[in-house]
Specification:
The protein is α+β, with helices and mostly antiparallel strands. The protein folds into 3 domains: 330 residues, no CATH class; 141 residues, no CATH class; 192 residues, no CATH class. It is 50% helix and 17% strand. It has a 6-stranded mixed barrel. It is elongated.
């Protein structure tokens, strides 16, 4: 306690030093705490499911499909599910889920809600229980639609009314029985939990019991079911994978037309939920770790400077009989007190920065949303604060007490403050700071280039001035021609609104995570070998869709404006489809059906070719695409797209009013501009880039401040030397060059070391990069130049001070 009191008194006497040291460390500690809070909730904390380590997810995999579509995790068909469930020997239960969306009507305003269809034992498998009512049981498989709802929906729309279990609600215009209310934390699966393209929403609030008819259970088409299971006690992932792989191989032999080349991939559920974000989080944790080390080096330099100023005090205390160990302990206590104070300030900074960080989260990473300053994050901060105090304090404490007492008193008598060992230590710390800053700046620059390239990539459509809105009609009320008539009426009403240039509808917008893949059969072609089928994106659109989205017509004719009931089916194909399916031959007039050879389906005539678009993500390649007229395949769920001159968001209320005018029970969901959709598609890259850039900027500031402090202190130590040089004929400009040369020599050493470290470290960043190499020469050349320029400017002030030394005053004082 005496050492702590003495340390506080010493720091109080030098408030400027204490404030600078505490704030420098607090920035590093706060950043580490905030990122640790995120990593804790994502990577370290167990999943909120019972015996979560036994939960696994089973994906289909086909090398051919991955090569053509980019998808390495594929869902299963109903027939596949039945085979896996009945034949496996390694799982206690296997259950399925698939995406859904529903219209809630009959209470207040109609609302479009995210939903999930699940099998009966889904909640039992996860170990999730209802907070009110129950989850599904065998009795729910008979009768009408049965659902459980989220607690948030129960409170928001039903005022926590317990009678919800006795009165049906209206979903898609049909009654549905609510049997239970789920805890507020449960939102599985959300968009981002499972692979993009399966159609899950960011905030599901309704889970429907998915009852499959015997006919559906036998089909091998419609691969849209994700398979989740709980492994038997003592069974590992490898054993489960081998078991289901054997079953998948048997299915492929029995049903080659639908499953040839397919196998099963079993992975832990946690790996599925966090595997895609783990590389970015590890990069961020490495970045804040480096930042903290730079902060420690900076404060260690300040302590060395302060120790030099306290040299006479230390030597006097040693001369009076105080043991060196006690002095080291006292100085180390001062460092730990600084670290503890920085930890307290760091917690405040972490709380503030974490709040800001959560607002920046990309929507497709829901696992991060639960991050907060919980007990483990606070404990982490305490440990880091103490460790930081020891790390930056031990070296200066040893250096400060290593001096010979007699020499120290003599040096102190003539005002000298420092020696060669201390100077070398300070220089080494500056070199280390510069090296760390180089690594972070190179990483930030590469990530920035990735983000810029993603935003500039040709996605094949117009985003400026385009507004989108989702409208899904109730199947019980809208079928066939009535669906087409409804959407045509919406488009007609919106087209009459001043400021709206054109209106269209599409079954799926680009980059929103909704996929519909079809196998394509070309008329006159022999049956393709298994795994060599043509797979295409399938879109149902109105004719004006290409004008609204700015997709060019490359050949042939556009879709006809009107289509009669007896019209022959026609479609448009993308350039990639023309290249893939026809290999340079003219596709106009050729016929294709959008099923496999053995399955029935209408033959469509190709009447035109349009430009390619990126549908899944900005960093994926263009895929073959086909576009079918709304009248040929009316979809209940469509997205309205409209082109405006400016300010597209201002038309949101107009869309709602026009749809409500046709059907007051019809909600409109997810009204967004295409610019927002494109920006969200690069959200994860923006998130990582922004944080690493902030950390790199702080590291650069710390390095430059440390360099300035060392140069400034060096000039102060060498005042007599500067005076002698001037007296002997040296020019002020020569002194300026001398100081700058010695300063930039430190920067050069740090840059060389930093580049060496970056050449190895950037390889771990390659998974996050797009359109730029991890060893991009321009980046590795530009960053050192920037650092040399910044260091030169930072050193000019102390260097110019050396020029203004008066030799007569200096020599007279000596």
């Amino acid at each position: 306690m005496h050492e702590i009191t003495t340390a506080l008194r010493a720091l109080r006497h030098r408030p400027g030093f204490a404030v600078v040291a505490v704030l420098t460390l607090a920035l590093g500690i706060g950043a580490n705490t905030a990122i640790f809070a995120v990593i804790d909730v994502v990577l370290l904390r167990p999943l909120p499911f019972a015996n979560a380590d036994r939960l696994a997810i089973v994906w289909g995999y086909s090398a051919e499909v991955q090569q053509r579509t980019g998808f390495d995790r594929l869902p299963w068909s109903p027939g596949d599910l039945d085979d896996f469930i009945t034949r496996n020997t390694t799982f206690e239960r296997l259950v399925w889920v698939r995406a859904d969306r529903v219209n809630l009507t009959g209470t207040d305003e109609p609302e479009r809600l995210g939903a999930v269809r699940v099998s009966r034992a889904f909640f039992e498998t996860l170990g999730v229980q209802a907070v009110f009512g129950r989850t599904f049981d065998d009795s729910d498989a008979h009768g009408g639609r049965t659902v459980v709802i989220a607690e948030t929906l129960w409170r928001r729309r039903f005022n926590s009314n317990p009678e919800i279990l006795t009165a049906p609600i209206s979903l898609n215009g049909e009654p549905a029985a609510v049997v239970g209310v789920l805890p507020s934390w449960f939102r599985f699966p959300r968009a981002g939990d499972l692979p993009q393209g399966l159609g899950y929403t960011h905030d599901p609030e309704i889970w429907t019991l998915d009852v499959l008819s015997p006919q559906v259970q036998r089909t091998r088409a419609g691969k849209s079911f994700s398979l989740i299971g709980r492994m038997r006690d003592g069974v590992g992932i490898d054993a489960a994978g081998a078991d289901l792989g054997t079953i998948a191989a048997a299915i492929a032999r029995e049903f080659p037309s639908s499953n040839a080349g397919w196998t099963a991939r079993v992975m832990p559920l946690r790996e599925q939920l966090v595997g895609s974000i783990r590389p970015a989080l590890l990069v961020l944790m490495s970045a804040v770790g480096v930042l903290l080390l730079v902060a420690c080096a900076n404060v260690a330099n300040l302590l060395l400077v302060r120790a030099s100023a306290r040299q006479r005090e230390v030597c006097v205390r040693r001369a009076l009989g105080v043991a060196r160990g006690r002095l080291v302990r006292q100085l180390l206590v001062e460092s730990v007190v600084l670290g503890a104070a920085a930890g307290l300030v760091g917690i405040v900074l972490a709380w503030w920065s974490l709040s800001l960080l959560l607002t920046m989260l990309p929507a497709e990473v829901p696992a991060l949303s639960g991050a907060g300053l919980h007990g483990r994050a606070v404990l982490f901060t305490a440990l880091v604060s103490i460790a930081t105090g020891v790390i930056f304090g031990i070296g200066p404490a040893i250096q400060a007490t290593r001096l010979d007492v007699a020499d120290g008193l003599r040096e102190g008598s003539r005002g000298s403050v420092g020696n060669r060992k201390v100077r070398r230590t300070r220089n080494a710390l500056v070199v280390a700071e510069v090296a760390a800053a180089v690594v972070l700046l190179i990483a930030a620059t590469l990530l920035l280039q990735t983000f810029v390239r993603l935003m500039r990539v040709d996605h094949g459509f117009r985003s400026a001035g385009v507004l989108t809105a989702e409208v899904a009609l109730a199947p019980s009320q809208y079928r066939g021609e009535r669906v087409a008539l409804f959407f045509e009426s919406v488009m007609e009403r919106l087209a009459a609104v001043p400021g709206i240039r054109s209106v269209a509808v599409t079954s799926a917008l680009p980059l929103v995570g909704l996929e519909n893949l079809r196998q394509v059969t070309i008329e006159g072609r022999p049956r393709p070998n298994p795994g060599e089928e043509i797979i295409s994106d399938y879109r149902v659109v109105s004719p004006a869709y290409f004008r609204v989205m700015g997709i060019p017509q490359l050949a042939g004719e556009p879709l006809p404006i009107s289509v009669g009931p007896e019209a022959a089916p026609v479609l448009l194909i993308s350039r990639r489809m023309a290249e893939t399916a026809f290999r340079g031959a003219d596709p106009i007039g050729r016929r294709m059906k959008l099923t496999s050879v053995d399955q029935p389906g209408p033959w469509f005539t190709v009447i035109g070719v349009v430009g390619d678009t990126r549908h899944t993500a900005l960093d994926t390649t263009m895929r073959p695409q086909v576009y079918v007229h709304l009248r040929f395949d009316p979809h209940q769920q469509m997205a309205v797209v409209l082109e405006t001159g400016a300010g597209p968001s201002g038309y949101a209320s107009i869309i709602r009013r026009m749809v409500s005018g046709l059907d007051r029970n019809q909600p409109v969901g997810r009204i967004r501009t295409m610019e927002t959709i494109v920006a969200e598609a690069a959200g994860r890259q923006r998130f990582t880039m922004a944080l690493v850039a902030v950390f790199a900027g702080l590291a650069l500031v710390f390095a430059l401040v440390g360099l300035y402090a060392v140069v400034s202190h060096s000039v102060a130590e060498r005042v007599r030397e500067m005076g002698v040089r001037l007296a002997l004929g040296a020019s002020p400009a020569g002194l300026l060059r001398l100081v700058l040369f010695e300063s930039l020599r430190l920067v050069g050493a740090g840059v060389a070391i930093g580049i060496g470290l970056a050449l190895g470290a950037m390889q771990f960043l390659s998974a996050l990069l797009f359109g730029v190499s991890a060893h991009d020469p321009a980046t590795f050349l530009a960053i050192p130049l920037v650092l040399f320029a910044a260091a030169t400017l930072g050193c000019l002030v102390p260097a110019r001070r050396a020029m203004r030394v008066d030799p007569m005053v200096t020599l007279r004082a000596d």
